[in-house]
Amino acid sequence: xxxxxxxxxxxxxxxxxxxxxxxxxxxxxxxxxxxxxxxxxxxxxxxxxxxxxxxxxxxxxxxxxxxxxxxxxxxxxxxxxxxxxxxxxxxxxxxxxxxxxxxxxxxxxxxxxxxxxxxxxxxxxxxxxxxxxxxxxxxxxxxxxxxxxxxxxxxxxxxxxxxxxxxxxxxxxxxxxxxxxxxxxxxxxxxxxxxxxxxxxxxxxxxxxxxxxxxxxxxxxxxxxxxxxxxxxxxxxxxxxxxxxxxxxxxxxxxxxxxxxxxxxxxxxxxxxxxxxxxxxxxxxxxxxxxxxxxxxxxxxxxxxxxxxxxxxxxxxxxxxxxxxxxxxxxxxxxxxxxxxxxxxxxxxxxxxxxxxxxxxxxxxxxxxxxxxxxxxxxxxxxxxxxxxxxxxxxxxxxxxxxxxxxxxxxxxxxxxxxxxxxxxxxxxxxxxxxxxxxxxxxxxxxxxxxxxxxxxxxxxxxxxxxxxxxxxxxxxxxxxxxxxxxxxxxxxxxxxxxxxxxxxxxxxxxxxxxxxxxxxxxxxxxxxxxxxxxxxxxxxxxxxxxxxxxxxxxxxxxxxxxxxxxxxxxxxxxxxxxxxxxxxxxxxxxxxxxxxxxxxxxxxxxxx
Length: 609
Ligand code: M6R
What we know:
The chain is of the alpha/beta class.
């Protein structure tokens, strides 16, 4: 949540900052601001999307080659120009941008008020600017001392970039539990909350750890620990391609990312399967460990949680190990009793989701092994988990996840098949058959995109004014209904609910009336007749039915609009049925004229609890 950028080098900073903020807008878009240092530090802010800030500075001559920027997702204080970052200390000595939340800001404000500091915004950020200023002036020991003292006094999560008036040509940064990377090339040094913002300029980055700080000079970066000692950091190379963070002719990132699914699914499969053999052992986990787990806990948020729900069906059925799936924000606070011989799996695209990170720490504190399924290399969860299996989705820019979701599912299939093999729950022949069919998924996904998109686009306009939608299915079809429903509601703002088809008659069916949209997913042979009966029940109450079915199941008689997906192994259907669900959400939203990549109130990476 919130995106921060910075540049210090030979070139004009303004375009680099705006360019970076554009790439980070998916992290928040309530307001944006930049501070550029020429002779003086000049601050510009605007409420709303970045375009408003761009308009505001369009006629300004900004020649400074050092600056910081911010795009906001409001936590403390409404979205307004006054609450937008950068914030300055009372006398302008310190200028700062911040991503995260300061939990003890009331206590710190009280302390600073006693020292005559005044507060002009409703944010928790302003307290940081003044606290740094306070320590800087009180101890007169320079920026690193003031920043470290501030970190020690502050509770919460933060990634900050700071300009000190007395220290031209330097940007100071620090972080705890909020993401930040630092890049470098021959033209200068860069900082960002996320890779896409600096990918155009450099692939060489440093990862800064919790409670560490750094000084970005024009030609080098110096790192410090909490004692103020200089420390060494290794320069790492980002593998992502620049084009992956551009729209490349597509109208929106969401539709580009939907269309990238066959390719990234294939990449992810190829990363773990070679010549009909699964290899997940480069993560460090051993066969012996995998065999020993008596219980699996899957913990995640949002769509990643839905991957977990799918995975529960597949893992339990294939491996016969009991699996519990939990929403990360609930997991931590219910004081979970965990089986010491269990494995906790955290799923996260960003690797920075605060609740998922807290769940990981809870598991570790109980001495349970942790495995993370992560897309962003070097992210906090990836660094703290015992083992990591990466998804190879590349940068995902649209707030609504699509390709990351699909690659997470693939990693779970691979994990489940491998555990089943080790535990001898499947034969060698089943193992090979499952692998071979998994390798067909990219082609079947491509077939769906090529053949179903146009029909969905047409039907979507019929539903752009619908008020409610219900997604129903059984077994894995129910699991994927959860994702279809979230996809629709988060981008189109249409109320939608996912229900286990058999559960509808226990209350929710009373909401069905003439033309209520019901999307039925029917791929699981063992239960398909029962789901069809449930569809008949809603049909006879007036529902308009979109049926999404496997090619060997006929839903055309019961559906007003039927979509057929290719046949596959029962476990893998979610990878195929999710595609029409994503397309339905995308095209309905486009028809409603909404910003599908940046839905209101949302941010891509939820780094606050
Ligand atoms: O980065 P993460 O995978 O941890 O994010 C989890 C959720 O915030 C995320 O999946 C969210 O639900 C998306 N908006 C769904 O499209």
